[in-house]
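Holo prediction. Input below; ligand is oxa(dethia)-CoA.
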Amino acid sequence: MVFLTGIRIAGTGRYVPPLTVDNNAFAAFLDTSDEWIRSRTGIVTRHISDGEPSWYMGLQAARQALEAAGISGQQLGLIIDTTVTPDYVTPATACVIQRELGAVNAMAFDVNSACTGFVCGVDMAARYLATDPELSYVLVVSNENLSRITDFSDRSSCILFGDGAGACVLEKKQGLYSAYMMADGTGVTSLYANANRRLSLFSKGEHAVPEETDPQGDFLRQEGRAVYRFATEAMPRAVQQVLDKAGMTAAEIDLLIPHQANLRIIETAAKKLQFPMERIMVDLDKYGNTSSASIPIALDEAVRSGRLNRGDRVCLVGFGAGLTMGAVLFEY
Ligand code: UT7
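Structure of the complex:
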């Protein structure tokens, strides 16, 4: 869908915990190696929470984004937080951040669309901005504390993930905007983490439904190969969809910022799209996979390092648990 009203990123921010863990640290207690992790994923190191809650990481990124936008918390009309690792089941993480920012004029809620979360949040912000004349600024903030749900005895998954947060302040601007979102629930068990499933004091479990996921524990579980196959199909498909909707070609994208899961996934998708790696933002070597935070962290890096400049056409593309995929295309 191409809206007449587009979006403008007024400011971006990011926070990663100071504690870093390199590949060799995993080789010290698992049957793995720096060479295997680098060659199969592209990841070299990642930042891990040393006690920072998810909301705290989001707040630091949000503060930076507000500062870069030159606005105060009171000017926000909406806060959308995306996370699969909230500190509370309820209230929404966005409400904690709203309190801390003194964003007294903002509605606040969370979105859980896994690694597609930030793209979903941006698209929701665009739609709110397009339909509410009184709304000036929306904060989209993504914070993940994946180390809390990582099984550090599972070498095929624990080496992938990192913690961190990214944020952006969005406002209205006439111009290009194209979005595509998709979910495929047949892939629910390919990538999941169980929620609390306690029975009440009154329940005997007589109406229990057979578990479709492993009922043991609440760690993140994934079928790596299945997710890999989905990702290498999802990424080019979502990008092509936003291009088709906008009547554009891949050559017209100045910078592609994909979810940072695995370098091989990004390279395969780039090949399918015939898109040069030089115009793709990659920082997973430093951060690993930070789920919904990965795209806004990369976006902030692109802005602050001068890789993304005003007027550039940028495409954000995510994929992940659900299974879900999504892309947005707009002018920075
Ligand atoms: O945000 C989305 C989240 N998830 C993803 O993006 C994950 C997508 N999937 C992937 O990135 C890849 O599938 C992985 C990186 C998870 C695995 O790479 P792979 O090339 O698909 O490896 P594989 O699962 O086919 O395993 C190949 C071998 C196996 O050994 P055998 O059976 O061939 O003897 C694994 O046991 O590699 C072994 N292996 C490891 N070896 C050393 C798996 N993990 C490790 C490890 N170190 N950390």
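Residues 3 and 308 are 22 Å apart (CA to CA). That is the main takeaway for now.
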